Amino acid sequence: MDVFQAMRVFAKVVELEGFSRAAERLGISATAASRQVADLEARLGVRLLHRTTRRLYLTDSGRSYYERCAQILNDVDEAELAIASAAENPRGLLRVAAPVSFGIRHLTPLFLDYMARYPEVKLDVSLADRMVDMVEEGYDLALRITHELKTTLVARPLAVMRLAVCAAPAYLERHGIPRTPEDLRHHECLCYTYDAVRGSWEFEGPTGRVRVSVQGSFSTNNGDSLRAAALAGRGIIQEPTFQVGEDLRTGRLLRLLPEYPVPSLTLYAVYPSRRHLSPKVRTFIDFLVEHIAEPLPWDAWMRSR
User: Which residues form the HTH lysR-type domain (predicted)?
Assistant: First the structure.
């Protein structure tokens, strides 16, 4: 007796609630399906199913055995898929959603390099800072930068995204340098409108986390606009270092409150399911893992201080 085949027949009989339907799905006769399950019961020395003229019932042993069978069969299917996918060239349209500023500054070169490596893949990239509905809008993968990711989808962390509070030397010459987070209440703070708690900045203090309310005359939903306003000397910003790292390295912006670091964000690759992951999605995730790694190029200012 082929035990693996008998397990597959038994699992299909349970899932379809009948020998005839299971046999039809597997391309065998109902008699053969019934014999496979009977042989399996004989081998195990237990009854797996109670049979009546109208329906089938799992015994306690049958229920326990089915759960293990289902897991084993699923693992085998995924192993076979992984082998088949490894041999298959990535191809087709890959739809990706990514944040605007990070996408323009750092992801676009990677997109082009990925297509050079896998020329049969076409990329359709949507840059937006809003939280897209991947399933509803038909995306294969999304890149999200957040403190805490709340999702039922699969999320793979790619990198720690640091933040810095900073301002131009011209602003600090006019208004002074804040020494504690509380000092920010008296400064012009330029805010990002998509922050989880708008008008409130959080810091890691010597005695724990500190949250302070901030306000200013300019807010926007785009990090490049905040950076431009800060470079013009209009106020203080709290921005990811992928946005302002080069400015911090050259001194165009100065980091403030170094004793009170800002809690980091995380860059995630988010996709609908681990099961039946297509070669284009799998290779794209692997490509990002390969190229977005410590030391992050936009944090060179930290190493050069």
Answer: 1-59
For the chain, the distance separating the N- and C-terminal CA atoms, rounded to the nearest angstrom, is: 70
CA dihedral 194, 196, 197, 198 (to 10 degrees): 0
**Residue 152 buriedness (CB in 10 A; 0-12 / 13-18 / 19+):** exposed
Range of the domain at 283: 92-158+267-293
Identify whether 304 is part of a domain: no
CATH at 107: 3.40.190.10
How many other CB atoms are there within 10 angstroms of residue 244's CB atom?
26
* Structure confidence by residue, pLDDT tens digits, 86-143: 557 899 999 999 999 999 999 999 999 999 999 999 999 999 988 888 878 889 999 9
Beta-bridge partners for 213: 200
- Residue 302 forms part of a structural domain: no
pTM above 0.70, yes or no: no
Residue 299, domain member (yes or no): no
